[in-house]
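Task: sequence design from structure.
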């Protein structure tokens, strides 16, 4: 386990590096309360590992947001939009 973590720290996760053409779709909530606002965001030009492991602020998403779903591809946008009634 330690070897895996040390290898992950050495990987440079930069915006725009090794990016695929499909958009990354994120469904997130503003807090963990039941009446929290659920939102959906589409990222183009980002690597999925950068979004998962970033400690900086993503555009349009607060740092304390709770990620509910994260996927790669256009079909997730329509699927999750209907699922969460957005």
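Answer:
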């Amino acid at each position: 386990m330690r070897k895996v973590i040390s290898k992950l720290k050495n990987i440079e996760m930069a915006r725009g590096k090794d990016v695929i053409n499909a958009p990354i779709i994120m469904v997130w909530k503003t807090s963990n309360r039941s009446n929290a606002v659920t939102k959906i965001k589409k990222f183009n030009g980002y690597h999925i590992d950068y979004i998962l492991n970033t400690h900086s602020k993503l555009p349009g998403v607060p740092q304390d947001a709770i990620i509910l779903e994260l996927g790669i591809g256009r079909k997730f946008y329509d699927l999750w939009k209907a699922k969460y009634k957005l």
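The longest helix spans residues 2-10.
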